[in-house]
Specification:
Layout lengths: L1 E9 L5 H10 L4 E5 L5 H5 L2 H19 L14 H12 L2 H11 L3 E4 L2 E5 L2 E4 L2 E10 L3 E3 L13 H4 L8 E5 L3 H12 L3 E5 L11 H13 L3 E3 L3 E8 L2 E8 L2 E7 L1 E4 L3 E3 L13 E2 L2 E2 L13 E3 L12 H17 L11 E4 L5 E5 L2 H6 L4 E7 L4 H4 L7 E7 L5 E7 L3 H13 L4 H5 L12 H4 L1
Parallel strand pairs: 1-2, 1-6, 2-3, 6-18, 8-9, 8-14, 9-10
Antiparallel strand pairs: 4-5, 5-6, 7-15, 11-12, 12-13, 16-17, 19-20, 20-23, 21-22, 22-23
Helix pairs in contact: 1-9, 3-4, 3-7
């Protein structure tokens, strides 16, 4: 059965949903296709459920920090099965709710795996869908590691669905997944190890603050092994043996579960892009500045599936989906502007970053001032007994504009958003410093940071 549409969107997550909805509101005939439950990674398998777990870990950690500061914690701990039940109150209803929103907007909902038959024709099961335009918003998947035995590894999605928390866990990769889930698991009582093959984890973030976070992570009891490469995984009954190499030495670890945190790649293999003349790179569908495929003008791409230069973050996916919708409805006129894009690692304490790193500013040969300090004795950290906090803010000498802000500690996830606004709106540091923020709050620290 063949049917024609103005737009078919492959993927129902943060990139696909806003584009489909906006085009449908404008009167376009739209269909969405997804081989998985509707909602995408962030809603179902990433940001949202992860933050539920992080919230519980934050509460337990705050109570621990305050144990000698007037809080009688008793036997406060985390009931993992109970936490999973709470998490499912967010994720279980989401697919039906997302599908209902699509249908109410007049969007046809199709379940199945999409595959290109030609430039403007898709096959889903026994159906063929012809469209004036197609948006690829299929997201990402764990990158193949090329390591013997990797099929026994758990993914981040598996970790977020564990009915019981394993007693000993190894995380492969020192990125977002490795550090965030390691901090949660450790505070839930697990013995945790992170194995990272590079000398520096979390490379998207400020080098000095990452070093502080590594120290805080090790102080928590997590074994962070850098310049260590996993070379094999072997299942032995209910246990797993991890074989690794470091500085020419063979290392062996035994654990109950190994979690793949070694990175993700665009999920494009099932689409048969060659049949549609859609070019791809290792970063995703090759697109122009309007997020249009360079090989097939009927196709656009957004989010983790697009090689448009954006980081694999939810705000990027949402923005790109909106940009594609605008360009479909108005002709190619809008480009993506990533100015002021903030990023977070939800460890405890959290680490935030926006704008240029010190290294990037030096590479651009900019003249700038560096404002930095360790802040564990500042009121905002002392009142919650947080012993690991710091910041680094870069301001341009000639204009006073903020080039970058990097924050670790309490309130980092909210304070970084103020710096994000300042960078995006070109608010100079003297103006931000003079803002009358409520006190005492995380934002009231900004004047001292500047």
């Amino acid at each position: 059965m063949e049917r024609e549409y103005d737009l078919v969107v492959i993927g129902t997550g943060s990139a696909g949903a806003p584009c489909a909805t906006e085009c449908a509101r404008a009167g376009c005939r739209v269909a969405v296709v997804d081989e998985r439950p509707y909602g995408g990674t962030c809603l179902l398998r990433g940001c949202d459920p992860k933050k539920v777990l992080v919230g519980a870990a934050e509460l337990a950690d705050w109570a621990r920090r305050m144990h000698d500061a007037g809080v009688a914690t008793g036997t406060l701990g985390i009931d993992w099965p109970g936490l999973m039940r709470f998490k499912r109150t967010f994720t279980d209803p989401a697919p039906a709710a997302r599908e209902r929103e699509f249908r109410e907007a007049g969007i046809e909902c199709i379940h199945g795996t999409a595959r290109f038959m030609s430039q403007r024709v898709l096959r889903v099961g026994n159906r063929e869908l012809t469209a004036r335009h197609i948006l690829i918003a299929s997201g990402a998947k764990p990158v193949p590691l090329g390591i013997d035995g990797e099929e026994i590894l758990k993914t981040s999605e598996d970790f977020l669905s564990l009915e019981m928390l394993p007693r000993r866990i190894v995380f492969i990769g020192g990125g977002f997944i490795g550090f965030e889930f390691a901090h949660v698991a450790a505070r839930c009582g697990a013995s945790v190890r992170i194995i990272e093959q590079e000398s520096r984890p979390l490379r998207r973030f400020d080098r000095d603050l990452v070093q502080r976070l590594v120290e805080a992570t090790r102080e928590l009891g997590i074994d962070v092994l850098l310049e260590t490469k996993a070379v094999a995984f072997e299942q032995h009954g209910s246990g797993v043996t991890v074989r690794a190499q470091s500085e020419g030495k063979e290392l062996t670890f035994t654990c109950d579960a190994v979690v793949h945190g070694g990175g993700r790649v665009p999920d494009l293999d099932a689409l048969d892009l060659d049949s549609a003349g859609v070019e791809r790179t290792k970063n995703g569908v090759k697109v122009n500045e309007f997020l249009q495929s360079t090989g097939n003008p009927a196709v656009y791409a957004a989010g983790d599936a697009a090689g448009g230069g954006g980081s694999p973050l939810t705000p990027v996916a949402s923005l790109e989906g909106e940009v594609v919708a605008y360009n479909l409805l108005n002709g190619n006129a809008r480009r993506v502007d990533f100015t002021g894009l903030a990023s977070m690692v939800y460890t405890i304490p959290a680490l935030a970053s926006v704008g240029l790193s010190e290294e990037a500013a030096n590479e651009k040969k900019l003249a700038f001032d560096v404002h930095t300090a360790e802040t564990s004795q500042w009121y905002s950290s002392r009142r919650v007994n947080e012993k690991h906090s710091a910041y680094k803010v870069l301001t341009e000498k000639s204009t006073g504009h903020i080039l970058g802000a990097h924050i670790m500690g309490p309130c980092a996830e909210e304070v970084v958003n103020i710096f994000s606004l300042a960078i995006r709106a070109n608010i100079p540091s003297p103006t931000l410093k003079d803002a009358l923020f409520a006190y005492p709050t995380g934002a009231s620290d900004i004047a001292y940071m500047l």
